[in-house]
Amino acid sequence: MHSKKAGKNRSYLTRGGELRSTRGSGDDDDVIIVGAGVAGAALAYTLGKEGYKVRVIERDLTEPDRIVGELLQPGGYLNLIELGLEDCLEEIDAQRIFGYALFKDGKSTKLSYPLEKFHSDVSGRSFHNGRFIQRMREKAATLPNVKLEQGTVTSLLEDEGTIGGVQHKTKSGEVVKAFAPLTIVCDGCFSNLRRSLCRPQVDVPSCFVGLVLENCELPYPNHGHVILADPSPILFYPISSTEVRCLVDIPGKKLPSLANGEMAKYLKTIVAPQVPPEVHDAFVNAIEKGNIRTMPNRSMPAAPVPTRGALLMGDAFNMRHPLTGGGMTVALSDIVVLRDLLKPLINFTDKDSVSKYLESFYTLRKPVASTINTLAGALYKVFCASPDEAMMAMREACFDYVSLGGACSTGPVALLAGLNPSPLCLVLHFFAVAIYGVGRLLVPLPSPKRVWIGVRLLMGASGIIFPIIKAEGLRQMFFPASFPSYHRAPPKKGSQ
């Protein structure tokens, strides 16, 4: 790998000061990346910039049109800067986001990101997902050692438990094989390759119904809006200077029919009365315009099956409820972790040593990923309406707790923003909300009924967060340094 063949190479220094060279198209690739969404495109640019010869195979290189992946938290933006990709947010009419506004029963509270310690450019960003992806693909393609091609990967090439590349169908329909010592699969939530690389346990707690509202002013400009509605949350955030995305969460997998008008009726009669008055007319107009989109909300904890010659990343590997907009932040954080892990490696040909070393990726990513994943799952359950008095008391307590301001506001928002990836802080704030809720039930005079509701509230809070932590991995989440892989050294250069 990186051999200096006469007439074919462009040699240059990586940021680490090591001389690497790109090679001619006749040579095998160093890395094959399956998928060129947010994770795949960002990874292609990152590894290409490090000097690896990267081949990206994407099913469809035209601009995607999705209703999720439109809000990047400040922590994700910091990772974008770290990867040198922040300019991909230019010229796509991206909007700056400075925090959230929370609405409940006619009351509202503004929660600002704690950005005082950062450069003035640091904030969240919201945008059209497809425009952002196209900008990253274009930037990756400017590197001479990155090749993007359109094709459908049908299978991984496996020999005695080692992945050596992929088989794919080209745009013209020809079935071909591509080989590389490292294959990274990041082909999104619909991945058909993940089964051999992880234990997929995909849960679908709800679906999003997406609308675009045109030329309307949100109550709090440059903020995400979360309405604690019945039966579950409604989201609003700008995706351009003239458009606002609305996502209506509907619990379960069964949706009202779009074809016979049930969905439009549901949105007008059940949802419209619960949206802020400032956006009501634009919301109804968007329904009548008829461009209603739906998307199942998937949740899948990261349960890797370490495999020689392959890694799994992005939504193909790990998903959380999109309520908190954390998916891109997790993916970009994972890419920073992987880039830093790969830096000492000259090549990937000693697959046993490299594979053993790269197992540390799954541990090193945990603090950021598990914090964002757990928060998303727990908040979704707390924010949904419930017939249970104890759970409604928990929802009320959550709204009032973050409305207190100070650390009660900045602490949870820093977790949400990806600025403080601390599982311990998350658990402390979660139970602080529960205890605050119990305290309100017992003041001024506790009755037996209110004491019982308080007990059920604490039991309900435990029943929400502990199963999520168990799925994420308690030891990896809170004690990652106790894993041998956490301290694993890269293979010696001689063995590569």
Give a summary of the structure in a few sentences.
With 496 residues, the protein is of the alpha/beta class. It has 14 helices and 19 strands.
Structure description:
This protein is an alpha/beta fold and 496 residues long. It contains 14 helices and 19 strands. A seven-stranded mixed beta sheet has the order 12-11-10-4-3-13-19. Strands 8-7-15-16-17-14-18 form a seven-stranded mixed beta sheet, sandwiched between helices. The chain is globular. The N and C termini lie close together (10 Å). Mean pLDDT is 92; it is low at 1-26. Keywords: FAD, Flavoprotein, Membrane, Oxidoreductase, Transmembrane, Transmembrane helix. Belongs to the squalene monooxygenase family. Its cofactor is FAD. GO terms for molecular function: flavin adenine dinucleotide binding; squalene monooxygenase activity.
**What is the radius of gyration computed over CA atoms, rounded to a whole number of angstroms?**
24 Å
Shape: globular
Outline the biggest β-sheet: 7 strands, mixed
Largest beta sheet: what is the strand line-up? Answer: 12-11-10-4-3-13-19
CATH superfamily of the largest domain: FAD/NAD(P)-binding domain
Report the portion of residues in β strands: 15-25%
Low-pLDDT stretches are 1-26
Estimate nothing, just give the exact number of structural domains: 3
Count of distinct strands: 19
The quaternary organization reads as single chain
Would you state the CATH class of the largest domain? Alpha Beta
Helix content range of the residues, please?
Answer: 25-40%
Number of helices: 14
N-end to C-end Cα span: 10 Å
| CATH structural fold name of the largest domain | FAD/NAD(P)-binding domain
**Do you know the CATH architecture of the largest domain?**
3-Layer(bba) Sandwich
Mean pLDDT rating = 92
Structural class: alpha/beta
GO biological process, one term: sterol biosynthetic process
EC number: 1.14.14.17
Subcellular location: Membrane
Catalytic activity: squalene + reduced [NADPH--hemoprotein reductase] + O2 = (S)-2,3-epoxysqualene + oxidized [NADPH--hemoprotein reductase] + H2O + H(+)
